[in-house]
Design goal:
With 80 residues, the protein is mainly alpha-helical. Helix content is 40%, strand content 0%. The protein has a domain of 35 residues. It contains three helices and no strands. Helix 2 packs across helix 3. The protein is elongated and about 80 Å long. It starts with 28 loop residues before the first helix and ends with a helix.
Length: 80
């Protein structure tokens, strides 16, 4: 009976070398869902812009209004 050596498989996504544990810096899940007060507004968008956000939201399984709100919030935060 001949023993066959198994070829060692190297996963390039796995870390190599000595590993160190780092402290958990992420907040608990209940702190990730921050609900800020919102105000309803009526906004006219171009058809192309609205379709873009609807497509992107569908790909990411989220609501397009949420994506538009996030864009506006990020813009406002940058230029305050």
């Amino acid at each position: 009976m001949v023993k066959i050596k198994k070829k060692k498989v190297v996963d390039s996504d796995m870390p190599v070398g000595k590993l160190i544990r780092i402290p958990d810096f992420l907040p608990p899940p209940d702190q990730l869902i921050l609900s800020e007060p919102t105000v309803k507004v009526t906004l006219s968008l171009t058809k192309d812009s609205l379709e873009f956000f609807k497509r992107q939201a569908a790909r990411r399984n989220t609501k397009y209004q949420k994506m538009i709100r996030e864009v506006v919030d990020q813009y406002a935060k940058k230029y305050r």
